[in-house]
Design a protein that fits this description.
seven-stranded mixed β-sheet, 2 domains, 12% strand, globular, alpha/beta
Amino acid sequence: MGYCQDDKLVNTICDLYEKISKLESLKPCEDVDTLFKQLVSTCIPPNPNIDVTKMCESIQEMRSNLIKLCGHAEGHLEHHFSSILTLFEDNPLHHLNVFPYYNNYLKLSKLEFDLLEQNLNGSVPKTVAFIGSGPLPLTSIVLASFHLKDSIFHNFDVDPSANSVAARLVSSDPDLSQRMFFHTVDVMDVTESLKDFDVVFLAALVGMDKQEKIKVIEHLEKHMSPGALLMLRSAHGPRAFLYPIVEPCDLQGFQVLSVYHPTDEVINSVVISRKLVGDVVNHDHMDQASELACNCSQIHAIMNKKKSIVEEFTGSIEEQLS
C-alpha cells in the first residue's frame, strides 16, 4: 500500500482508513457504525511498539486525515443522539444511557475529577470552562451532576447548531439549566473572560493537528488566570490514530502536574497542568519528563486502586437511569 510500515496493526488501521474515507457520509448508519467500531476496537489495546510520532510521512498524513474523519463522525453521532434525547417529554438528562458511549464518559469524567481533586488543594472550582463542548456536552453534564454540584459551567463551541441542541438538552433540568451556559464563539476570540475560570477543559478535537492544538494552548496560556488549571485530553499508543497527542513540552507557560494513560475502554489520556504564576519558568524538559514519569506511575497506582470505585460509581448511575 506504500505506507512504508509493515506492522500488522498499522496495516489494519490503514485499511480501515481507506474504507472510511470512501464513505459518502459520516452520519450514523450501519456501515459507518461498523467501520468506526472496528477502528476503535483495533486502536484500544495498549501496544508499547506503536509510537506514531516516529512513523514515516505517509503514515503521519494518513493519521492526520483519519483524526479529522473521526472528529466529523463524532460530531454527527453526538448531534444524532442529542436530537433523540430532546424528544423525551420528561427531563432528557434522565435518559443519557441511550448514548452508546455514555459509560465511557462516566468513567473518564470520574478519572478527571479525581485528578482535579488531587491538584485543587481542597478547594472547589467556582467556574469551569469547557472548550469544544459540542452538541452533547457529556463531560460538563456528568461533572456538574455528580462531582461539581455547586460549580458554574460555561461551554464554548464554534458551531451554533451544536450549542442550540446542547442548550435545549439541559433547558428542562431545573438545576443544570441554572448552572450551565453556552457560548457560540471561536476560542481564539475569547480573551478577558478566560481569566474568570478556575478550571479550563480543552476537548480532544479542538485543534485536530499539532500546530492548531499548540496555537490554542498558547492562546489559553496568554489569557487564563495564573494558578488556574488546564485539563486536556490526549492519546497514547495506537489510540493516537483517533485523537491528537499533547505532550508536556507543548504546554509552555504551564506546570504539568500529571499525565494519565488509561488502559481500559476509556480512550483518551488526561493531562492536567497549572498556569504558571508571575515569572516562574518551566522546568527543563528532561527534568520535567523525569518528574512526570514518577508522578504518572503514582497516578496509575492511585487510579488502579480506585478502579473498583469508578466501576461501582458508573454502575450505580446506570441503575438510576434504567
